[in-house]
């Protein structure tokens, strides 16, 4: 018996306890190398390829495609390809061969015309039985030689010696038999029973849908509020058109979502509560935790369901960097290749429901975050512009926030500033940096006396 190793489903991280076998990359008997892909599995968050920890021969696969495997359960058994396994595999074949040899051969099919005796004829006479037995042996012998004898003395099993015929054979009419009607085949949906047409269709909840459901249940426990704002984005769309024609963006597609993502990241320093999360500790103690960077989550609709990967340190990206990051994120998510660590740890999420043709919605928070921005479709509508009514491109934004962390005033101010920035994108030049130049030590000493005893809190100017 050869040495065998059992490979169990490893812990894929991020608290995942099970995976679904999507596709096996190997079969029993295959020789695999170290780190060769064994299977493609789907977790609650992403598609992952399982590499082989051994080099050897696949002796057994412990699950079928579509099965759910728990972490720690056997996945693949490996052997070295030598030993007694091969003899064990050949044993059933030998037994099967013996069974075939000992089994009686079926009677050969006769091409002769059907006898005039009806199928319901009485049992043959004893003398015919002997003849029948001889005919059966003769038929078996002929079949073993690979041919069927077609002599005039050939017998039909069960009917005795063939009777001599005169002239053309005739068929007696059959008597009608009260038998149930034969089932109708390929009758289509109309022939299906009414019960089958009205039966419920049940599908087991698994993978991404299971994870999404758990996330929404957790989100529902958080007190949330939503504010809406419809603003004119005509100038922003004109900016997008100019950027697409610029030589620097020749190989990078800059869209409205790119500009919105950059605007959100640019406003975060003035609205820190938007990226501050509520964290509860043991004993009922709670803390407000703010990340030093913006890990911007992007909701992506895929064939597997909704996933929300994030762009790490999105606040450090330029406009072109943001466009490339968004494209890479969407492509990776739709192919199911997002790394599990990119599906947790976001600080704020954007969800673009406008691509589905709706004006607005009330998005639910992603667990662990304090804000999510819903983006509606761009609609051409009559709008007040410079004291007149004109057709303008407008978008409705919906900001949902954790009311434990963000007050209504804070959420409203953030959304108003975002709307103002997208109405007039030239205001983006006011974002970032300090509002006052840095002073040297002498200037600081001269002004220190006048500042003693006075509150010196400064707030960044909002757009």
Automatic annotation (TrEMBL):
It is an enzyme of class 2 (transferase). Residues 437-446 have a biased composition (Acidic residues). Its EC number is 2.3.1.-. Residues 4-79 form the Lipoyl-binding domain. It holds the Pfam family 2-oxoacid_dh. Residues 93-103, 111-154, 184-197, 447-463 have a biased composition (Low complexity). Residues 74-201, 434-463 are annotated as: Disordered. One of its GO terms (molecular function) is lipoic acid binding. One of its GO terms (cellular component) is cytoplasm. PANTHER family: DIHYDROLIPOAMIDE ACETYLTRANSFERASE COMPONENT OF PYRUVATE DEHYDROGENASE COMPLEX, LIPOAMIDE ACYLTRANSFERASE COMPONENT OF BRANCHED-CHAIN ALPHA-KETO ACID DEHYDROGENASE COMPLEX, MITOCHONDRIAL. Belongs to the 2-oxoacid dehydrogenase family. This is Dihydrolipoamide acetyltransferase component of pyruvate dehydrogenase complex.
């Amino acid at each position: 018996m050869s040495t065998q190793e059992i490979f169990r489903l490893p812990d894929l991280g991020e608290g995942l306890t099970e995976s679904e076998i999507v596709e096996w990359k190997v079969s029993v008997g295959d020789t695999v190398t170290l780190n060769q892909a064994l299977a493609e599995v789907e977790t609650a968050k992403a598609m992952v390829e399982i590499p082989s920890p051994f080099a050897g021969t696949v002796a057994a696969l412990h699950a079928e495609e579509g099965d759910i495997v728990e972490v720690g359960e056997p996945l693949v058994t490996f052997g070295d390809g030598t030993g007694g396994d091969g003899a064990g595999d050949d044993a059933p074949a030998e037994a099967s061969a013996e069974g075939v040899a000992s089994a009686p051969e079926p009677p050969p099919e006769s091409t002769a015309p059907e006898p005039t005796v009806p199928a319901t004829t009485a049992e043959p006479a004893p003398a015919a039985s002997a003849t029948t037995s001889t005919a059966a042996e003769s038929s078996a012998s002929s079949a073993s030689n690979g041919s069927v004898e077609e002599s005039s003395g050939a017998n039909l099993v069960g009917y005795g010696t063939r009777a001599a015929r005169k002239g053309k054979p005739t068929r007696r009419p059959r008597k009608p038999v009260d038998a149930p009607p034969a089932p109708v085949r390929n009758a289509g949906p109309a022939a299906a029973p009414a019960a089958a047409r009205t039966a419920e269709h049940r599908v087991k909840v698994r993978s991404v849908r299971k994870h999404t459901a758990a996330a929404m249940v957790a989100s529902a426990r958080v007190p949330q509020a939503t504010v809406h704002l419809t603003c004119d984005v005509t100038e922003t769309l004109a900016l997008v058109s100019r950027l697409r024609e610029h030589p620097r963006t020749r190989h990078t597609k800059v869209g409205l979502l790119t500009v919105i993502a950059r605007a959100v990241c640019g406003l975060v320093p003035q609205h820190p509560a938007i990226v501050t999360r509520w964290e509860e500790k043991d004993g009922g103690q709670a803390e407000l935790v703010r990340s030093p960077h913006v890990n911007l989550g992007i909701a992506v609709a895929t064939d597997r369901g909704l996933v929300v990967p994030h762009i790490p340190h999105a606040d450090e990206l330029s406009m072109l960097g943001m466009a490339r990051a968004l494209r890479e994120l969407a492509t990776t998510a739709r192919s199911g290749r997002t790394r599990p660590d990119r599906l947790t740890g976001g600080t704020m999420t954007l969800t673009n429901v406008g691509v589905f043709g709706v004006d607005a919605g009330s998005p639910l928070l992603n667990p662990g975050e304090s804000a999510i921005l819903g983006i509606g479709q761009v609609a051409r509508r009559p709008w007040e512009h410079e004291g007149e009514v004109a057709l303008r491109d407008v978008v409705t934004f919906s900001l949902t926030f954790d009311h434990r962390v963000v007050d209504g005033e804070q959420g409203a101010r953030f959304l108003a500033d975002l709307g103002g920035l997208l109405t007039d994108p030239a205001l983006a030049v006011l974002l970032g940096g300090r509002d006052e130049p840095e002073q040297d030590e002498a200037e600081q000493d001269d002004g220190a006396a006048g500042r003693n005893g006075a509150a010196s809190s400064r707030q960044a100017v909002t757009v």
